[in-house]
Sequence to fold (158 residues):
Amino acid sequence: MLRPFYLAETAGFSCERAFRVYTKDILTYLNKGVSMIGQNATHANFSVDDIEVAKTFYVDKLGFTVKRETPYDVMFESGAGTRFNVYTKKDHKPWDSTVFGIEVDNVKDAVDELKGKGITVEKIDGTDESGIMSDPDMGDAAWFRDPAGNWICINSAK
Fold:
């Protein structure tokens, strides 16, 4: 793991020594073929046809909070601190596959909660009668769509 420059400096290294340690870490990762990009936080970014409808859905139905918004997009944040951004697009076409996933402790409980809020959990190939797919290696998962037709997956945090 990359050591932040300030940690090396507080460990008693001079600025020059701290820089050399940090640079060595970077070179070690690059030489191993590990990208520094993959060491950072991620987020999803996808389009919707109506930003106000999307905002209501993601806040009121799913419980995300608004981190930032403009008339054209909204950045949402989960309780775990991850983010995703939705933006309005006049010629929006929903993706034909999952745009992002939400890890939950119990997929069955989450499916029941979604259904209680009027959200349809889709029954697709490989799911049971309640729309849950179980895989011994990957855990449980279920899919539903947002009002713009984008696919969202809930899966067990395994």
